[in-house]
């Protein structure tokens, strides 16, 4: 029984609750709860902390499903860089939850809740339906490794990789020039 969850979780019978299935269920519950916390809290700092918890639980889910490279990228890029920068900006601006916007948020929250419920039903339906096997487990094991990613980046995709590095360099130089003009 090979499903969308990978070989480790899909080998368990539906009535059997074991280590991998229990770990997956706990991590999924943490991801859903922290995702709800992102939209439920009025404080932007608390919402950002819930988003960090969501990113970390998703990274752990990636690790349990055998996609170690995705888990590492999730932790380093999203949790380690983007969210820390986001929290720094929030604390620097000292944002507080305004009371005047609370009435307009109620309708938005209702719409967001309906959309989230519809997406949840869609995900559950897609998870329950049997899926065709897209690739062999050996191919999936090879393409998820850091070695395969490094080999692809430095052989087949070397020019797009270099172009991305030049674009990042131009962005850094531009931000330095903008910062020097203001001083």
Can you characterise this structure?
The protein is 77% helix and 0% strand. With 183 residues, the chain is mostly helical. The protein has two domains: 7-134, NADH-ubiquinone/plastoquinone oxidoreductase chain 6, subunit NuoJ (Four Helix Bundle (Hemerythrin (Met), subunit A)), CATH 1.20.120; 145-183. Helix 2 packs antiparallel against helix 3 (44-64) and helix 3 (44-64) runs antiparallel to helix 4 (68-93). The longest helix is centred in the middle third of the chain and has 27 residues, at 102-128. The radius of gyration is 21 Å and the shape is globular.
How many domains would you count in the coordinates?
Answer: 2
Please trace the helix and strand order, writing H or E for each element. Answer: HHHHHHHH
Helix content class: over 70%
User: Class by helix and strand content?
Assistant: mainly alpha
Q: Could you say which overall geometry the principal axes of the C-alpha atoms support?
A: globular
* Strand-residue proportion: under 5%
Distance between the termini: 63 Å
The name of the CATH architecture of the largest domain is: Up-down Bundle
The CATH topology of the largest domain, please?
Answer: Four Helix Bundle (Hemerythrin (Met), subunit A)
What is the CATH H-level superfamily of the largest domain?
NADH-ubiquinone/plastoquinone oxidoreductase chain 6, subunit NuoJ
Number of helices: 8
Would you identify the regions where 5 or more consecutive residues have pLDDT less than 50? 1-13, 132-136
Largest sheet: none
CATH class of the largest domain: Mainly Alpha
């Amino acid at each position: 029984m090979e499903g969308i969850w990978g070989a480790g979780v899909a080998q368990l019978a539906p009535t059997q609750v074991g280590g991998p299935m229990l770990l997956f269920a706990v991590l999924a519950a943490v991801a859903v709860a922290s995702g709800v916390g992102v939209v439920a809290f009025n404080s932007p700092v608390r919402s950002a902390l819930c988003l960090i918890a969501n990113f970390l639980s998703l990274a752990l889910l990636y690790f349990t499903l055998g996609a170690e490279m995705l888990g590492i990228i999730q932790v380093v890029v999203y949790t380690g860089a983007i969210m820390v920068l986001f929290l720094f900006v929030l604390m620097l601006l000292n944002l507080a939850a305004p009371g005047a916007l609370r009435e307009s948020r109620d309708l938005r929250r209702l719409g967001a809740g309906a959309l989230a419920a519809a997406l949840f039903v869609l995900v559950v339906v897609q998870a329950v339906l049997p899926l065709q096997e897209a690739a062999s487990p050996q191919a999936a094991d090879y393409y998820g490794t850091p070695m395969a990613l490094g080999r692809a980046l430095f052989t087949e995709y070397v020019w797009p990789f270099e172009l991305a590095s030049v674009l990042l360099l131009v962005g850094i130089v531009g931000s330095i020039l903008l910062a020097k003009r203001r001083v």
